[in-house]
Specification:
The chain is of the alpha/beta class and 289 residues long. The chain is built from 12 helices and 8 strands. It has an 8-stranded mixed sheet with strand order 3-2-1-4-5-6-7-8, with helices on both faces.
């Protein structure tokens, strides 16, 4: 099947980044969300992505304009899904929400359409079971911020076919991404490692080992990480980090039990950049604990 039309479900941070990457890669992209205000904000941010790409010489101005013209923003899932050749779901990491989305997509899309879930921990095998085409369900783990991060971790479920995995890799590569294809296991590769590091950083902070700045700097310079665990957690969202840890604790055991301090930050709505304060302060006064 020739893939020309991609539909992205969810206009949040990840969905809008994926939609941009698809459009910049030459696909016709439809971005769906139930909230028109979210779509308007997503469209404005995607415009900024294109402006930045042109300024930095990554895209020609004419190419960017053509890509933007090939994008559609909609609150009508059924009508637009019927035209899709490939769908990427990017809703919150909640299995009930994902189940509802995939049951609808299975009904609205053509039978040969691949249904991908953007998830950092959840099971493509379980998600595939909510459809009549588990062989065409796969996970694509994009990284935040999508326009900058090169990797897409592709995760095969138990029933995922070779053709589905090959086609998904081709889609990601046309978006300009590097890929790894792995078999499903809770947390996959990157999320298991990142969750452990981020959780241990919160344990260190709670124990008074160092300040967030000192711990981040030690990891960045000593282990050559491009971003320390607290900076990364604030970027991804501490609520997302907590949900991932709770899932991994449930499925893989005690070593993933969330730090009490992380739980406290989330209860205080200190979720990171999206709320203006996480481990660091992102208000006008600066970035401090």
């Amino acid at each position: 099947m020739s893939i020309k039309n991609i539909m992205v479900i969810g206009g949040g941070i990840m969905g809008r980044g994926i939609a941009y990457a698809g459009a910049a890669g030459g696909y016709n992209v439809t971005l769906f969300d139930i909230d028109d205000n979210v779509l308007q904000e997503a469209e404005r941010e995607i415009d900024r992505f294109f402006e930045t790409a042109v300024e930095r010489g990554k895209l020609e101005a004419t190419t960017a304009e053509q890509a933007k013209a090939a994008m559609t923003f909609t609150t009508e899932m059924e009508k637009q899904a019927s035209h899709a050749d490939f769908v990427i779901e990017a809703v919150p990491e909640n299995m009930d929400i994902k189940r509802n989305v995939f049951e609808q997509l299975d009904q609205y899309t053509k039978d040969d359409v691949i249904l991908a879930t953007n998830t950092s921990t959840m099971s493509p095998t379980e998600i595939g079971s909510y459809t009549g085409r588990p062989d065409k369900v796969i996970a694509m783990h994009f990284f935040n911020p999508v326009p900058k991060m090169k990797l897409v971790e592709i995760i095969r479920g138990l029933e995922t076919s070779d053709d589905t995995a090959d086609a998904t890799r081709a889609v990601a590569e046309q978006m300009g991404k590097k890929t790894v294809v792995v078999n499903e296991f809770p947390g996959f590769v990157t999320s298991r490692m990142s969750s452990l590091v981020g959780n241990e950083a919160f344990h260190m902070l709670q124990e008074g080992v160092g300040t967030p700045e000192e711990i981040d700097r030690a990891i960045e310079l000593g282990l050559n990480y491009p971003m320390g665990p607290f900076k990364l957690g604030d970027l991804v969202g501490l609520d997302t980090r907590l949900r991932n840890l709770e899932y991994l604790h449930k499925t893989l055991g005690e070593r993933f039990r969330p730090s009490p301090l992380l739980v406290k930050y989330v209860k205080a709505n200190r979720l990171g950049k999206k709320t203006g304060k996480g481990v660091y302060d992102y208000t006008e006064e600066g970035e401090r604990q």
